[in-house]
């Protein structure tokens, strides 16, 4: 299975993505960091719930910040969401958060990932999944006089490459609420938000860095990605004139049922 790269450009892109997205409780939280948005969620939760135990997981430790710079109640470790969950972690967590798996989910089927996330949750626990509607991405220009052909071609070319690898069925993102309900979860909130104008430029820069990584990967075997690099430079020039690439962001918040009424539990937790 393909993984995101682990070089410094990739690390900077993921931290940029975090900046865009942005108690005495005995709660235990688990966060999968496969695409890094959970890292910001994790730190924010640690500040809000200083008595909670917060565990963050990623495929590798390559992009972990040093433990010395993290809140004391955060522990980081490794996990592969496509492998069986270790017995020691099953049913352990009150809250599980995961983000930006749109390019990680295989063959348009989120069920294998969802089942592993549910295995982490104890009955009565909560699952939040944040993601991007990548299939609905589009190019927007600030004025009809500003050209955007290169950015549009770059977007289409990246989608075509993913299509060749049979990874462009992104319809599951918009259908995730149905998938949650199919697995017996009670969906408490499901929100799609468009990228606002004031963060459209940094969001576009994040996309360009992702394409930069992609071209580097294509260029490595034979150094034959010249056409990609030429198109990339033209696209960068257009973004300097205000052209942006956007997509809606999704957040779904759900409850893993047990015998007690989940709405009553939620209201009790909010009191």
How are the elements arranged and paired?
Blueprint: H1 8-20, E1 28-32, H2 37-48, E2 53-58, E3 74-78, E4 93-99, H3 111-120, E5 121-132, E6 138-140, H4 149-164, H5 171-174, H6 176-182, E7 185-193, H7 197-219, H8 226-239, E8 244-246, E9 249-256, H9 262-270
Parallel strand pairs: 1-2, 1-4, 2-3, 4-5
Antiparallel strand pairs: 5-9, 6-8, 7-9
Helix pairs in contact: 1-2, 1-7, 4-8, 7-8
Could you explain the architecture of this structure?
- The chain has about 270 residues and is an alpha/beta fold.
- It is built from nine helices and nine strands.
- Helix 2 links the parallel strand 1 and strand 2.
- It is globular and about 55 Å long.
- The chain starts with 7 loop residues before the first helix and ends with a helix.
- About 30% of the residues are buried.
């Amino acid at each position: 299975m393909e993984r995101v790269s682990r070089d410094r450009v990739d690390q900077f892109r993921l931290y940029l993505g975090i900046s865009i997205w942005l108690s005495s409780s005995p709660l235990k939280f688990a966060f999968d960091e496969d695409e890094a948005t959970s890292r910001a969620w994790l730190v924010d939760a640690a500040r809000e719930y200083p008595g909670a135990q917060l565990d963050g997981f990623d495929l590798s430790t390559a992009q972990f910040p040093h433990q010395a710079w993290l809140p004391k109640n955060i522990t980081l470790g490794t996990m592969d969401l496509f492998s069986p969950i270790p017995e020691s972690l099953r049913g352990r967590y009150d809250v599980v958060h995961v983000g930006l798996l749109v390019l990680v989910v295989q063959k348009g089927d989120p069920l294998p990932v969802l089942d592993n996330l549910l295995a982490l949750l104890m009955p009565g626990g909560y699952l939040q999944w944040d993601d991007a509607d990548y299939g609905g991405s589009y190019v927007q220009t600030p004025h009809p006089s500003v050209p955007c052909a290169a950015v549009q071609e770059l977007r289409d070319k990246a989608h075509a490459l993913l299509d060749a690898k049979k990874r462009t069925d992104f319809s599951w993102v918009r259908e995730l609420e149905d998938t949650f309900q199919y697995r017996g979860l009670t969906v408490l909130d499901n929100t799609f938000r468009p990228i606002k104008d004031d963060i459209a430029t940094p969001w576009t820069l994040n996309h360009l860095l992702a394409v930069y990584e992609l071209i580097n990967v294509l260029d490595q075997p034979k150094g034959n990605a010249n056409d990609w690099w030429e198109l990339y430079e033209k696209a960068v020039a257009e973004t300097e004139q205000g052209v942006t690439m956007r997509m809606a962001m999704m957040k779904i918040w759900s409850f893993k049922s047990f015998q007690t009424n989940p709405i009553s539990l939620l209201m009790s937790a909010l009191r």
